[in-house]
Write a structure and sequence with these properties.
Layout: E1 2-7, H1 10-17, E2 25-28, E3 43-44, H2 45-56, E4 61-63, E5 73-74, E6 85-88, H3 93-111, E7 119-127, E8 133-141, H4 148-156
Parallel strand pairs: 2-4, 3-5, 6-7
Antiparallel strand pairs: 1-8, 2-6, 7-8
Helix pairs in contact: 3-4
């Protein structure tokens, strides 16, 4: 299932929290949209591995954080993959395809053997042509992640 919703203005929210946005793909910390202050923000543990894999594919990856600081990692004690929301800016269709492929492979490899049909919850944030931000969320089988590409292109107006 794919769901598209309005999202906070990422640039304004980053400034309010004192965060720098780095990279063509920026990992947004948990509670980005609703944290009272930056001390409430945490990084998803699976984001570290995913970031390395995306970097290996030539994707410029960054983490939204305060300069000189590292966000605490949240460790979940369950059998699911916990991915950060990805802010994607200024990337073409081919790069989005690479990102979704890396995410799908990462999730599948983490969950294969635990489940016969690995499931994932994953969100991408992108800027719409009207200047607003949209959060495109997917929940379902790993194989369905490729459906996000069309939704991202529709929202970003890059079809």
């Amino acid at each position: 299932m794919i769901e598209v919703r309005d999202f906070v203005d990422v640039e304004d929210r980053s400034k309010a929290l004192g965060l720098s946005l780095l990279g063509d793909v920026t990992f947004l910390p948990r509670h980005f949209a609703d944290a009272g202050d930056a001390d409430m923000l945490v990084s998803e543990t699976d984001g570290l591995d995913l970031g390395k894999l995306l970097h290996d594919q030539g994707i410029d990856v960054g983490i939204a954080k305060r300069d000189g600081e590292t966000l605490p990692l949240i460790v979940e004690n369950d059998a699911f993959v916990h991915l950060p929301d990805l802010l994607i800016t200024g990337l073409g269709s081919a790069s989005v395809t690479v990102i979704l492929g890396v995410v799908a492979n990462y999730v599948y490899n983490r969950l294969v053997g635990m489940f016969s049909n690995p499931q994932v919850k994953f969100s991408i944030v992108t800027k719409a042509p009207d200047g607003g931000y949209k959060r495109i969320s997917y929940e379902g089988p790993v194989e369905g992640l490729s459906q996000l590409k069309d939704a991202i292109e529709n929202v970003a107006g890059t079809e």
